[in-house]
């Protein structure tokens, strides 16, 4: 008989931290403290804890994400495991979630969660987020929906979710599409599922991808700096529907000539970039120059996607645009 086990892979973050009540600062503690949450999971056994790493999420790297994906895949191949929960710091949680979403082939649920309040703070949200995540990971209706983020009773798709507040427990939101489900006291209720799911081979990601946010009157200094420092791709958070200040154009031309892909997203968090505006620095000109337009991803997620697809581009499939159309 299959065991229907959920494995909780811990990676650190505030859920594995505590507050020094005198200095009001928060710092990492021994990750075994997450084991103290096991009694809350009694009703959902079997649950296994696996302490993978204990880092604040600003210390996460593409290499660690890759190791985490390999580690997680070993569990997903095990027929006794029905789902995975990964605890993670919230600052870069959406990036790890989207990275795994792009690489996972299993239909089994993979859920990321964490906490905004550390373990000894009043109203600590870690235990409830963990219990809700295990419930979602165990629920058969969660299968085949890609990597999920469960936080504050909501279920979000990795592709759309983003951290929107520095301290509020309702920080995770999907600005364009809303949550795809809700965790209630009695059940897991999905209202919709992401239609777009793309998968790429699990190879080490290219960590030399830069990210620039465009702003009024900006020039191309940062683009040249990335090129001079051997970066292999650059994501630009452009203005509005995909336009840039004219002074950024020379750097863009140099990057494209050097076969350094430039991927354009919008710094507005709703909507798409398109080659609509026909003026200097406008989307039409950028498209003509060879800039790749992305598909409603935010800058940090487009960067993850370029890290994951770069090797396909390198291997001669020059048309990166087709990956970013999806
Ligand atoms: N709430 C959190 O987890 C934030 C923390 N700085 C982290 O990302 O590790």
Automatic annotation (TrEMBL):
Keyword Hydrolase among UniProt keywords: yes
Domain Asparaginase/glutaminase C-terminal: 208-324
PROSITE patterns in UniProt: ASN_GLN_ASE_1, ASN_GLN_ASE_2, ASN_GLN_ASE_3
Keywords: Hydrolase
Enzyme nomenclature, EC number: 3.5.1.1
Keyword Hydrolase: yes
Catalytic reactions on record: L-asparagine + H2O = L-aspartate + NH4(+)
Active site: 14 (o-isoaspartyl threonine intermediate), 14, 90
InterPro entries per UniProt: AsnASE_II, Asp/glu_Ase-like_sf, Asparaginase/glutaminase-like, Asparaginase/glutaminase_AS1, Asparaginase/glutaminase_AS2, Asparaginase_C, L-asparaginase_C, L-asparaginase_N
Record-linked SUPFAM superfamilies: Glutaminase/Asparaginase
Family matches, as Pfam families: Asparaginase (PF00710), Asparaginase_C (PF17763)
Signal peptide stretch: none
Binding site for substrate: 57, 90-91
Subunit structure as annotated in this protein's UniProt entry: Homotetramer.
Name assigned to this protein: asparaginase
Lineage of origin: Bacteria, Bacillati, Bacillota, Bacilli, Bacillales
């Amino acid at each position: 008989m299959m065991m229907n086990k959920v494995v909780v892979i811990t990676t650190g973050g505030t859920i594995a931290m505590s507050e020094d009540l005198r200095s009001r600062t928060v710092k990492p503690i021994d990750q075994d403290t997450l084991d103290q949450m096991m009694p809350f999971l009694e009703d959902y056994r079997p649950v296994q804890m696996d302490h993978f790493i204990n880092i604040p999420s600003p210390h996460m790297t593409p290499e660690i994400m890759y190791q985490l994906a390999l580690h997680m895949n070993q569990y997903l191949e095990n027929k006794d495991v029905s789902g995975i929960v990964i605890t993670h710091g919230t600052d870069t949680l959406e990036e790890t979630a989207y990275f795994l979403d792009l690489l996972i082939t299993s239909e089994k649920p993979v859920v990321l969660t964490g906490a905004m309040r550390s373990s000894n703070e009043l109203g600590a949200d870690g235990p409830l987020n963990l219990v809700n995540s295990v419930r979602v990971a165990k629920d058969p209706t969660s299968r085949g929906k890609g990597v999920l983020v469960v936080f504050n009773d909501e279920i979000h798709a990795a592709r759309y979710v983003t951290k929107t507040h520095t301290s509020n427990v309702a920080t995770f939101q999907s600005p364009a599409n809303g949550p795809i489900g809700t965790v209630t006291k009695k059940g897991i209720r999905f209202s919709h599922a992401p239609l777009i799911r793309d998968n790429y081979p699990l190879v080490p990601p290219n960590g030399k991808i830069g990210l620039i946010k465009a702003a009024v009157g900006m020039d191309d200094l940062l683009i040249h700096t990335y090129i001079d420092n051997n970066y292999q791709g650059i994501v630009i958070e452009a203005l509005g529907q995909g336009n840039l200040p004219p002074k950024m154009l020379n750097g863009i031309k140099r990057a494209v000539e050097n076969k350094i892909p430039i991927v354009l997203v919008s710094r507005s968090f709703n909507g798409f970039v398109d080659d609509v505006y026909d003026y200097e620095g406008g989307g039409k000109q950028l498209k003509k120059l060879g800039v790749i337009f992305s598909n409603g991803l935010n800058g940090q997620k487009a960067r993850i996607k370029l890290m994951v697809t770069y090797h396909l581009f390198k291997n001669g499939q020059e048309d990166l645009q087709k990956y970013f159309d999806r």
